[in-house]
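Wed. Picked up where I left off yesterday with Type IV pilus biogenesis protein PilP. The coffee machine is broken again, so keeping this brief.
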Amino acid sequence: MKKIILSLSALYLCSTSVFASTAIEDCRTVENDLHRLMCYDTAIDALNKKQVAAAPVAQAKNVAPTTTQAPQVKVAPTNPEQEVVANSATNTEFGLEHKNIGKDGDSQELVSIISTVNKAPRGELILTLDNGQVWRQLGTDSFRVKAGQTVIISRGAFNSFLLRLEDKNKSIRVKRTS
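Structure written out below (tokens, as returned):
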């Protein structure tokens, strides 16, 4: 009886480790860097959760814990038209992803109109947009804006954001304060 249980659990663990490696290999086919990284993170997190859950079962059966099955990873679409999301539910969370780790932010750009422009004591701009979001300039680069102008806030590298006027190329780094 012990031989049957041991051989079945070895067969199960081998098949699940092969499945986990295929889920990770599927992430290699994703072209968008951000979506590929999210795919890897999801696969590894699922793999770690399964290992933690399998450890007490393995100890009860006196079997060493090994890699287990990772769930299917949803790959985000790589169509550029689908990356810019226009619905207001996603736009309200734009810029707060680092504060809300559990939520998935798909929006790559935010287009809005400036309601008010204020200056901080050291000269940084504090912009309030028509949707209620408040963005603060990082650094003291010269940048002229007025209330009523349309701005585009897009993602930069390492969770940063760039603000530029709709018809201009110059941009400044900003962070969302509320």
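Quick read: Strands lie at 109-119, 125-129, 134-137, 150-155, 161-165, 171-176.
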